[in-house]
Amino acid sequence: MTGTNWAGNLTYHATALHQPCSIEELSALVTAAPSVRALGSRHSFNAIADTTGVQVSVAGLPPVVEVNSSAREVAVSAGLRYGELVEQLDVAGWALHNLASLPHISVAGAIATGTHGSGDHNGSLASSVAGLELVTADGTVRAVRRGDPDFDGMVVSLGLLGVVTTVTLDIVPTFQIRQDLYEGVAWEAIEADLDAITGSAYSVSLFTDWGDDGAGQAWVKSRADAVPSEAFFGAAPATRQLHPLPDELADVTTAQLGAAGPWWDRLPHFRLGFTPSNGEELQTEYLVPRQHAVEALRAVRTLAPLVQPHLFISELRTIAADTLWLSPSHSVDCVAIHFTWRMHVAEIAAVLPVLDAALAPYSARPHWGKVFDTSPEQLAAAYPRIAEFRAMADRLDPNRKFANAQTDRWLTR
Ligand SMILES: Cc1cc2nc3c(=O)[nH]c(=O)nc-3n(C[C@H](O)[C@H](O)[C@H](O)COP(=O)(O)OP(=O)(O)OC[C@H]3O[C@@H](n4cnc5c(N)ncnc54)[C@H](O)[C@@H]3O)c2cc1C
Questions:
Q1: How far apart are CA 365 and CA 410, in angstroms?
Q2: Residue 104 alpha carbon to ligand 1 centre in Å
Q3: From atom 13 of ligand 1, which residue's Cα is the shortest distance away?
Q4: By alpha-carbon position, which residue is closest to atom 51 of ligand 1?
Q5: Predicted local confidence at residue 230, as pLDDT
Q6: What per-residue confidence (pLDDT) applies to 231?
Q7: Counting Cβ atoms within 10 Å, is residue 342 exposed (0-12), middle (13-18) or buried (19+)?
Q8: Distance between terminal CA atoms of the chain?
Q9: Among candidate residues 317, 254, 249, 316, the one with its CA nearest the CA of residue 278
């Protein structure tokens, strides 16, 4: 056993966790192991990173943050957590276009599941991947670049194609962000003005418990030179620092109240060095095409009595379309409907099929790193390139040493 995931809701079945210090050592490990799974920072809530073979972490490989200013790219060690590379990048005058709600996750783990932040014009974190180096099933190191055949299938990989050692990311000139929070956006405003709300700033998140009052909080992250509005679609500006979960202390959240700061210290909701969110929780998230967003929100609202007893909070975000085959935002701009659950494991297992069924008519795609009950048939229908992905995985890993029971179920032929 190699311990639990971050939330502690599952214990990995792996017989060992290896942390090689060199590519040669990693390559020898992968070659020798009949069954192997890369492990990132353990923040996924389902068994995606589990195996009955061995797990391997690339966090012990030499840390690299290598900026190529003329190409507008940075090459980073795949096991670095975003929080470990952002300041170095910022000091060099550069930024990533977006970050998730927390900086605690590894780059390789985040891109493998299609992790995202928010913003109408912001693609998932995987969408900024310009290149990858990975150790494939036979132990050879393979480097791929955006534009290469199959590259779009290789980024959101669910860990099925090999162990990623280096990731090259697009960068943009560094920028400052201010974060203004508002309290009380009514459902009427959300339904009538959803596009205007999410389009009103660089990144917008709404937090709701699905009660009749709408979204209790709106987190509005703007370029620092933007002038914030006094009222936000009927909501009043918050007058104190807030946490999205009602009973948590706000000192773990990034600075609010309009204080401008670097992108890496405002785009995530939570600060490195503190427990993000609650810790005793599960998460679920569905991405729905924007044209279905209002109907999908209405469908979830009808389930409020079922959902609320098990919910800390829900978050609504937007993600721009990308071209990556298994990305939940593949080819369509999306609204993400997220649930931070209390650790009510059995009860949530019963709620998930109901949520899945309610959102299926809206072409919802679940987040690969969170808990969901979507059937393999629904997944196959939701991902037009899934058969090509399977064929590529078969080519790169003919003995299927990187597969596990969870990915086998999702990708059933
Ligand atoms: C508190 C909290 C907040 C979150 N907020 C967000 C959010 O804002 N937005 C969002 O989209 N998601 C969010 N998530 C989900 C999280 O981003 C994903 O689950 C992400 O995949 C976790 O990355 P990890 O490094 O922990 O990977 P793990 O959970 O360890 O692994 C995930 C997958 O990555 C693969 N992997 C890891 N390393 C490698 C490697 N070197 N090579 C190949 N494959 C690899 C694993 O095999 C596995 O398939 C949140 C999770 C938590 C716990």
A1: 12
A2: 10
A3: 115
A4: 43
A5: 74
A6: 81
A7: middle
A8: 30
A9: 249
**How many CA atoms does the CB half-sphere of 150 hold within 13 Å?**
16
Please state which CATH number belongs to domain 176-376: 3.30.70.2520
Q: What is the predicted pLDDT for the residue at 413?
A: 63
Number of the ligand 1 atom closest to the C-alpha atom of 38: 47
Q: How far is the CA of 42 from the centre of ligand 1 (A)?
A: 7
Question: Which parts of the chain have pLDDT scores under 50?
Answer: none
- Ligand 1 atom nearest the C-alpha of 370 is 19
Ligand 1 atom closest to residue 134's alpha carbon, by position in its atom list? 42
Ligand 1 — pocket residues by CB below 6 A?
Answer: 6, 37-44, 48-49, 58, 78, 100-102, 105-106, 108-110, 112-113, 115-116, 158-159, 163-164, 276-277, 283, 367, 369
Q: Which CATH class is domain 65-174?
A: alpha beta
**pLDDT computed for residue 388 by the predictor:** 97
Phi then psi for residue 391, to 5 deg, are -65, -40
To 5 degrees, how large is the angle CA 49–CA 308–CA 304? 110
Give the type of residue at 90. Answer: D
Name the residue ranges covered by the structural domains of the chain: 65-174, 176-376
| Radius of gyration, alpha carbons of the chain | 20
Strand ranges (DSSP E) for 19-122?
Answer: 36-38, 54-56, 65-68, 73-77, 94-95
